[in-house]
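Much of our argument rests on the idea that a fold can be written as discrete symbols. In the encoding step, the backbone of a single protein was reduced to a row of integers, each denoting a local shape. We regard such an encoding as a compact summary of how the chain folds. The record that follows shows the chain in one-letter code together with its fold in token form:
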Amino acid sequence: MELRVGAFFKDFAHGVRLLLRRPAFAVAAVTSLALGVGLNTTLFSVVNAVLLRDMPVDRPEKLVEIYSSASEEIPQFTSSYPDLLSIRQGADAFSGIAAHAYVRGIVSNGDHAALVTGQVVTANYFDVLGVRPALGRGFRNGEDSVEGEAPVAILGDRLWRQRFAGQASVLDETLDLSGVRYTIVGVAPAGFSGTLPGLDPEFWVPVTMVDRLSFSGLQSVADDDPGQTRLGRRGTRWLFVTARLRAERSLEEARAQVDTVFARLRTEYPATNEKTKPSVLAAAKVRFHPMLDGYVKAASAVLLTAVGLVLMIACANVANMQLARGAARRRELAVRAAIGASRARLVRQLMSESLALALAGGTLGVLIAYWASGLLGRLPTDALPVRMRFDFGVDGSVLVFAILASLLTTALFGLAPALSASKLDLVPALKADASGEGARRRRIALHDALVVGQFAMSLLLLVGGALLARGLLAARSTDLGFDPAPIASIEFNLQMNGYDVDRAAAFRKRAIDALRAIPGVTGVAAASRLPLAGDVTMEAVHVRGQHDPGSEGTPVDAVSAGPDYFRVVGVPLVEGRAFTDDDCESSRRVAIVNETLARRFWPGRSAVGQEVHLAGLAQPPHEIVGVARDHKVRSIGEAPRSYLHLPIGPSRIVSLAVRTAGPSAGVIPALRSAILELEPAVVFTDDVAAAEVASRTLLPTRVGALLLGSFGGLALLLAAVGLYGVIAYSVSLRTREVGVRMALGARPGDVLRLVLRQGGRLALIGVAIGSLLAAIVGRVLESLLYGVSAIDPIAYAAGAGILLLAAAVANVVPAVGAARIDPFRTLRAD
């Protein structure tokens, strides 16, 4: 064994010396590999942080997530606080059951106020997760038993360092949060983000303090819930529930117990729980949310495949260079074989050189990944609905991936050239002027196959990027049904400033008047959301004669709007009237539907005067008083979607749509200033131009087009270099043939066409194979395409045109060199 190890290191050292004698070859090969390994390692560091890295909790394999839902459309939703207490009482398979929800608050520090995001949690939250605070203590039993009576807080590491300079003396100091003074009892460990990766809570407070903060999360509300507060309403579902299994209990036992609890709740509380069903899942199988994880994993798989193709193209490039170098070394290898070296010995020597290249390329690739992952970690996340914060650092898992990728590249680019170069016909190989016609043909065939594969993979990436770019262009020319340019949204939550509902309603009127007085503002209306905004509210619509009394109804998107809303957003009414002040102030049961919803339930007749029920047919109906023109609701590429408008009522959340005479982005500072003059302590939760809101819906497509286009461009560059190398190598082997042709009368143009024909043939074969692969992969991208087919001819033509142009450029230099061969000098040398 020691002899074998010593022989390996001897071969490896010899390989390094040989590479150092050919620095141009070594630099080109290492650079190609470094780009491939660096891209793959960088993207894996992202996937590792988002999907793979273990949660910073104790024994995550014993944790489960408990969801509940009354809708088949969303089988995993949040739970109510009374249901949480019922699960605790009826399921003994758990050693602890905790819950949390996301909230926002205003941190006050003298004259400065800032919006912060945190969590309200049950007192046992840190205990169930097995997390010990870095400083101080967790919450005590009883600190979540009485509403509003336990103003204690645990700080996140970032808020602790920003607000308190990371001082250990922070314990027992106070934090002013949304008008309530909290006593700081602990500081969470650095890097702890709870059970959802990327979300960076800045504080934790007991769940009983939720009504002192602004709730921000998934929520469903039952209209006939008798509870008086959020904690008391069984039909208000807003908590994420996490439980820890007892050591001797199984997930199946826990699931059966929770099912039994909910079966009892459906009988005891039919008004709020009649249709509610639980879902109990292993926490290790849930990353963000069961309904979201599939999309995230699919996107990660697409990107990993894309950069994997770049790595394969890089390997093919180096393999081609190795083949050319092996041909030049055939005499050297033949001498080794003639004096007794076996073929296995020759392969081992050649593979040791490949390993040296792979290690050098892998090391440089890791350095690239260190730089790129740090850059990614500093990118802003303002375009996302919530602030995300991931650690994309290169940890042990990423280093292992880089090592495995480097070893894989050794096999991918080293084995075939080593086997080809070591298959020797000694007699012709020992001649300085011959290499064996059969061996030459084999090498050219392998060269050609590698180049065809490179071009096929390059076209696959180019077409993917072109499809997404075409989708972006189509989306930008899509008729939204309204013009977002002169519209802005401004929103703040007066609950965080201690306002009750009546004071907030009065403030909203004053705010609307103040904004209308700003020069350039042509209209202001209250609205719970702008079209195409990320937040979605749904109502279950029941229509008598079309729904049974016990049915779930038809879920449709809904918005709460005030007077002048339709003029402000630029969506005209095609029939009926708009909302009035009286509709909103008296909570009158009226509604406005869009054309799609009207056609859905009342085809061929007027919807005005018809009635819809929102909480079952037993509840009083809403009379339809108007029909609005269709417009895009959730995304630019969606089919016409049913949309319901309801009068906006009093609320502590003030959300306003503003219409301006010109582009709205320039007026937003004036809007903020006008509100702050009325209430200096306001912190805005949203102040954005509607054009930016519309643009956000295209973010996945825009990012995909940029990444695939960039990967495709890099792949094409590598493939073009590979083609150049193949043609140049082929010309070098055919120098004598070209000389004979020219001596017999062939003109330089004939030789030029001969060489270009070879490269063109390889590129065309690559285009054909790449097009077939792109047609298959294009189906995966269909959900990101807007008005563009997965086999869009323009995208394919653009990708193929770019590829063929690059191939032509790569062909020209060796072709021109071949056309300039002096036949007499060549034949004389021969």
